[in-house]
């Protein structure tokens, strides 16, 4: 079943991560344009792109596969963010905000993926699940 990726909160979060990544990398040293900056842009764009591709593939199994790729890209970006901090390319405040966004995305996407795999929901846009102290909802 095809899903409207634009309605998924995880896709919206991933878009925010990509936008934030582009904003932050503008402040990197010029010599990093073809190094870490380029890698971070590629991995950040890959996150929402894979969600969109999976939604367009037609089956939940394919969506799950592309969610896995998206999670992998977010782990790649997280590693690059840690390097960014180690190289002092951004402030601790921006580092914390960036990693918080990525970690939140990873948690919510893993839960979404597990529920999708376990229950094979066809109408994922309407359900909400209770996770500890807060609720994750996947569409606006």
Q: Which key terms come to mind for this protein?
A:
single chain, 140 residues, mainly alpha, de novo design (two linked rop proteins), two-stranded antiparallel ribbon, 4 helices, 2 strands, 6% strand, elongated, disordered C terminus, 23S_rRNA-intervening_sequence, Four helix bundle protein, 23S_rRNA_IVS_sf
In a few lines, what is going on in this structure?
This protein is mainly α and 140 residues long. Helix content is 66%, strand content 6%. α1 (9-25) packs antiparallel against α4 (92-119) and α2 (36-56) packs antiparallel against α3 (60-86).
SSE topology:
Blueprint (H helix, E strand, L loop, with lengths): L8 H17 L10 H21 L3 H27 L5 H28 L8 E4 L2 E4 L3
Antiparallel strand pairs: 1-2
Helix pairs in contact: 1-2, 1-4, 2-3, 3-4
Describe the structure.
Helices cover 66% and strands 6% of the residues. It is mainly alpha-helical and 140 residues long. The chain has a single domain, classed as de novo design (two linked rop proteins), CATH 1.20.1440. It has a two-stranded antiparallel sheet with strand order 1-2. A hairpin with a 2-residue loop joins strand 1 and strand 2 (134-137). Helix 1 (9-25) runs antiparallel to helix 2 (36-56) and helix 3 runs antiparallel to helix 4 (92-119). The longest helix has 28 residues, at 92-119. The radius of gyration is 16 Å and the shape is elongated. It starts with 8 loop residues before the first helix and ends with a strand. The relative contact order is 0.17.
């Amino acid at each position: 079943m095809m899903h409207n990726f634009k309605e998924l909160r995880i896709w919206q979060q991933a878009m925010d991560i990509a936008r934030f990544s582009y904003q932050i990398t503008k402040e990197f040293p010029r010599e990093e344009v073809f190094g870490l900056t380029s890698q971070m842009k590629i991995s950040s764009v890959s996150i929402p792109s894979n969600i969109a591709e999976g939604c367009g593939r037609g089956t939940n199994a394919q969506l799950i596969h592309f969610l896995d790729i998206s999670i992998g890209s977010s782990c790649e970006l997280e590693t690059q963010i840690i390097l960014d901090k180690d190289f002092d390319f951004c402030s601790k405040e921006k580092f914390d905000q960036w990693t918080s966004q990525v970690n939140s995305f990873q948690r919510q996407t893993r839960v979404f993926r597990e529920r999708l795999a376990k229950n094979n929901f066809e109408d994922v846009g309407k359900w909400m699940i209770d996770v500890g102290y807060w609720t994750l909802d996947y569409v606006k």
